[in-house]
Amino acid sequence: MATATKPKTSTELVSGADILVQSLVNHGVDTIFAYPGGCSMPLHQALTRHADKLRTILPRHEQGGAFAAQGIARSTGKVGVCMATSGPGATNLVTAIADAKLDSIPMVAITGQVPTKVIGTDAFQETPIVEVCRGITKHHYLVTDVNDVARVMKEAFLVAASGRPGPVLVDMPKDIQLDKCVPNYDADIELPGFEADVPLARPEQINQIAAAIKRAKRPVIYAGGGIVIAEASNELRELVKKTGIPVTMTVMGLGVYPGTDELSLDMLGMHGSVYSNYAVDEADLLIALGVRFDDRVTGKVEEFCKHGKVIHVDIDAAELNKNKPAHIPVCSDVKFALKELNKIVEAPEDISDWVAKCQKWKADEPFKYNEEYPGIVQQHAIRTLWKMTHKLDPVISVGVGQHQMWAAQFYKFDKPRTWLSSSGLGTMGFGLPAAMGAQSQFPGRLVIDIDGDGSFLMNIQELATLACEKLPVKVLLLNNQHLGMVVQWEDRFMQGNRAHTYLGPIDNPEWSGCGDGIGAKGQDERYPNFVQIAKGFGCGAAFVDKKEDLEAAIQEMLDYPGPYVLDVATPYQEHVLPMIPGGHTVKDMIKE
Predict the structure, then answer these.
(1) Which of 166, 399, 487, 552 holds its CA 20 to 30 A away from the CA of 339?
(2) Which pTM was predicted?
């Protein structure tokens, strides 16, 4: 959470809109993504009065603004903030709010609402957004008294950032925005039953974990997004250094342990590495840190680490024993637990044979692809991008689909908060606006969106925001003109029957540019023409379909001073492998 500045006090009457915006400033917010409308106009007028302290960025769609707020939160750890008007503006935030809830992202979403006297009358642009979002927010408010605004905002930031983070909705009727009072920014919170104190592991629990590690013969650490949220990556690395235990990560946990280290088993689960899944299957001790045993990781949960003892440390008590029973469940801030564990932990007596076995699996079954293929396959494009950029400390965002999984496999992350991925909800259209949010916080840093054409089209309008706001996001567009992940499932489980997964013009399916896998018809006949679109938005752009031209094309993208789209022609026949089909086990893994 951002360091709060000293609250501004006043004895003058201040409007609800100004109180809300001043509250944002008080809580250290420096950027808000906000789209105006009739019921949020007073809030936007207030934003103009605080422009010296708070940058307002106008997205081209409310969903884009909310994902951009997530980009801020995911890349910095601060609370991201977005704003929309009532009705359709508010409902356009819903997907991003649900996304933040599933991935535990701290976000405050502010919505305008019709005046209180007409709430419930089906007034113009009225939706009961609190009711709509009740099940997908950590907390929510409909403010009906201007005297409550300062307190509500104080509570919203506390709830969003504390414990297991999540989204908080603040719905502001227009008359409350216009009404005035003397604000009290130091108002006491009123959250009956809310526990702000962080749960901490007890000494006996830490002793139990240490004893289990000491006795283990085949231990594996299973690290997730909770390590990122708790800023516990250094503590995790210290634990590995002290114990020599191999580490596998969830898609949310990538970067918490260096992907280039020999003890890294990379990502596990449905599209995780062969070696991580083998290791977890044969482990006698699984140390699960900040994870929730998601179905995409476990497959058939009863068979997941069936013969091993499970230690599960998580800040949310509701996650313990929810999906997978734990032998040692510990409700605790994972950073605290790791700090305490590192004080007493001893390496297992002898796991050298186990580590050697894991490393042999890793050598024998690496992530791979057909390197002899004449065109540009997605994996090659991502690996080339990694080779050219990883030393530049970039932030990488992704959309959702095959390209997301290939990025997780072939781009090796060495530090947390450099990988932005919609993981729990799997929301297409996430990558571009999330990169936009991250770039707003790191103006001089390289920020790259690795995207697929299906995901990219869902929020492509944010190219206009990038150009107008001078946010130099780079887009590596892996364009196979299909909804690749759904195509893969069609091929594997539905006899290859195409059910509306081709994105090209149906009267000329050969325009997919994928019949021979290399986009032989060229840029001008591909549909849509992303180079023309990007340039129309004021961005740089180029098209590449030859492997020998790829590095030069990427370098041109990196050297360009503004936002840039590199449209890379790729085949639709590629499958993300390995793959454990949903609900199955490691024994059903598809490798070829």
Answers:
(1) 166
(2) 0.94
The answer as to whether 580 is a domain residue is no
Residue numbers of the domain that contains 533 = 378-569
Number of domains in the chain: 3
Distance of CA 238 to the CA centre of its chain: 25
**Which of 364, 386, 414 lies at the terminal end of a domain, its last residue?**
364
Calculate mean pLDDT across residues 562-582. 96
Report the greatest alpha carbon distance in the chain: 73
Looking at residue 9, what is its pLDDT? 56
Q: What is the pLDDT of residue 504?
A: 83
Structure tokens at 324: 């997978």
User: What's the DSSP call for residue 387?
Assistant: H
Helix (H, G, I), strand (E, B) or coil at 372: coil
Instruction: Give the DSSP letter string of 255-293.
Output: TSS-TTSTTEEEE-STTS-HHHHHHHHH-SEEEEES---
pLDDT of residue 8: 52
- Residue 592 has a pLDDT of 87
**Measured between alpha carbons, how far is residue 130 from residues 252, 261, 384 in Å?**
28, 46, 46
pLDDT confidence band for 193 (50 / 70 / 90) = confident
Tell me the C-alpha distance between 442 and 8, whole Å.
Answer: 27
What is the rounded (10 degree) CA torsion for 270, 276, 280, 281? 70
Instruction: Look at residue 519 in the predicted model and tell me its pLDDT.
Output: 39
| 330 in Cβ contact with 313 (< 8 Å) | yes
141, containing H or E segment? strand 139-142
Q: CB atoms < 10 A from the CB of 560, how many?
A: 17
Within-domain flag for 192: no
582 domain-assigned: no
Is the separation of the CB atoms in 149 and 176 below 8 Å? yes
- Active centre residues (catalytic): 62, 124-125, 174, 485
Average pLDDT over residues 179-194: 94
* Residue 581, domain member (yes or no): no
- The model's pLDDT over 480-535, given as tens digits with 9 standing for 90+, comes to 999 999 999 999 999 999 999 999 876 655 544 443 333 345 555 678 999 999 99
- The residue with tokens 């390496």 is 347
Token pair of 19 as six digits? 């109180």
User: How far apart are the C-alpha atoms of 98 and 101, rounded to whole Å?
Assistant: 5
316 and 406 in a single domain? The answer is: no
What is the structure's pLDDT at 570? 96
Average pLDDT, the chain: 94
Query: What's the pLDDT at 517?
Result: 36
Residues 6+ apart with CB under 8 A from 366: 273
Strands (E), 277-353: 285-289, 309-314, 328-331
Q: Average of pLDDT values for 556-566?
A: 98
Residue 346, class by beta-carbon neighbours within 10 Å (0-12 exposed, 13-18 middle, 19+ buried)? exposed
Q: Which of 337, 364, 391 is the last residue of a domain?
A: 364
Q: Is the separation of the CB atoms in 542 and 569 below 8 Å? A: no
Residue type, 325: P
Q: Are strands 180-181 and 14-15 parallel, antiparallel or unpaired?
A: antiparallel
